[in-house]
Amino acid sequence: MPLNLDKVFPQVGGMVDRLQAERALRQQRLDTARELFGAQGDNLDALARKIDLSQTTWLVAGLVNGLDPVYSAPSVPADFAVLATDGSHIDVDRHRSPRCYLINIGAVALRYGAAPDAVLDSFPALYSGEEKLVISPEGVRGREVPVEGTLLGLKRGVDECCRLARLAAEVPANLPALALVDGTLVLWGFEGQFDFVTEALLERGFLSYLEEVAALNRGGGRIALVSYISLPRATEVVNVLRLALCPREILDTDCCPSCETRECEAVEEVRDRDLFAGILAPGERSTIFASRSKIVRERYGEHAVYFCYVRVDDEIARLEMPGWVAHNPHLLDLAHGLVLDQCRRGQGYPVALSEAHEQAVVTAADRDNFWALVESLLAGYKLPGASSAKSRSKQTRWV
Questions:
Q1: pTM as predicted
Q2: Share above pLDDT 90 across residues of the chain, in percent, rounded to a whole number
Q3: Are residues 150 and 87 in the same domain?
């Protein structure tokens, strides 16, 4: 039965009315944030110290080169390559037998300049068997963690990075390149995971593949690895302003519930993209900021994540990069210039990422066909392939 939009209509109308009523307050807070942002230049050392010493439940950006430097779009090389990966997956279905999952990685290598070329491919991988379906501490049984749901999403991110490192290794030694992934480099899902899970997928997986790309740059930077986030929701830079507004010299979140003046609410609900929309001209990027997330500080080491914001047409996008890109002016300019070039070619979004997504996407029909293939092969070999009554019920047309 389709969604009854007649019942939804008045609820949507109420939401729009509320947003309209709050518009003036949102604009006031945004104006305050932009004014405060421009006024912090004379107080950067004290602000940086306050950031380092304070404890907050909200994530605050680390200052690297101040707050307000803005950088124009650099030129791009005559010959270059752009690499991108994206992924999709079919999760374990507990209502079907056998237990398995599939990860499909889309990979794109585009070459521009004197010898243009394009390679687009996908790499589906089926995982089955107990050793592939769980992660367990070495030599210990009974503490297995199943690779499904959130953890499968993290595993897919690791596989995307693995494929990107392989693409990077194939780039000719004299050719500058941009290596792109979609979404954040901060794998938040590992916070709260068992150490053996984080060690297996993050340290021996994701970070090891970042190291492979970093090693290609030793002796001369030529491959800039960057993640691209469209319409970012982050507030880390605005939270610097929240911290600046707090009258306490060092903020301890235990003090927040008893605070009566609530100065920080003057910039509440403002996002970083809203702030930089009034600061950056088309093609410009902000200065670099450091991610101070717990997982990055504790696990990432030399691959610690930095970020900046760049204006692409009417959108403010977020670029994230490991430290060996952020601290290399040549790689940083290469990333800035080639991301803009990709967005111009891709109607406001990097064309390589769009193509990688097209290679990776697994549709609902693909999932149905996959399970039909599995069940037909099981039946052909007379192997048990039982499904739950709930699954059979969903596949039955009822009158």
A1: 0.92
A2: 75
A3: yes
